[in-house]
Every structure is written in C-alpha cells, then in structure tokens.
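I'm curious: can you give me some protein's one-letter sequence along with its backbone structure tokens because I've never seen that pairing?
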Amino acid sequence: MAITHATDATFDQEVSQGLVLTDFWATWCGPCKMIAPVLEEIDAEMGDKVKIVKVDVDENQETASKFGIMSIPTLVLMKDGKPVDKVIGYQPKEALQELVNKHL
C-alpha cells in the first residue's frame, strides 16, 4: 500500500476504515523529514495492517486544528475514523510498530 496524502477535503474519507497512522507534518520541519523514511519502511512492512496518511499542516489547517496539533510531527493513530492513540515528535520505527501492534 502506498502512503496517501490527505487534504481537509479528503481526510475523513481516508481515515474512515481500519487502522490509519496519520502523520501531521510540514515541509520545513526537520524531524518530519527524519520520520518520513521510517514511515515508508513501516508502510512496506505492515502495509496490509495499517494505512499511512500524511497531512501537511500548512495546507490543511482545518484538519490540523480539529486534532489540536500544536507540535509536529504529531502522529495520530485512527481506528475506523476515531483517534485511539497519539505520539508527538520523532519516533524510532520500533516505537511506531509497537503503537500500531497495540491496536491490531
């Protein structure tokens, strides 16, 4: 499964089914750039278990404010459209896999 980029208009549809790891990020954010390859690895290894959706907070402020995003990267784990977990800041791959596995 490929990583999806959601907008304010498509977000609800993208996260409505199953387990979705949502990455709130911005192009100017250093830790966001560091976590991007980690998310790609998770997508490659766990793609059938979890969908990864990226939301650029500068372009999609409505969705970012709906989730109270104050720091980036913030990763919100959604299950069938509802937030079930959240981590803020860079996370190593193992920590993110553990977060996902906890909700499978």
User: Anything to note?
Assistant: The two ends are 17 Å apart (CA to CA). Residues 4-102 form a domain with the Glutaredoxin fold (CATH 3.40.30.10). Residues 27 and 94 are 24 Å apart (CA to CA). Residues 30-46 form the longest helix (17 residues).
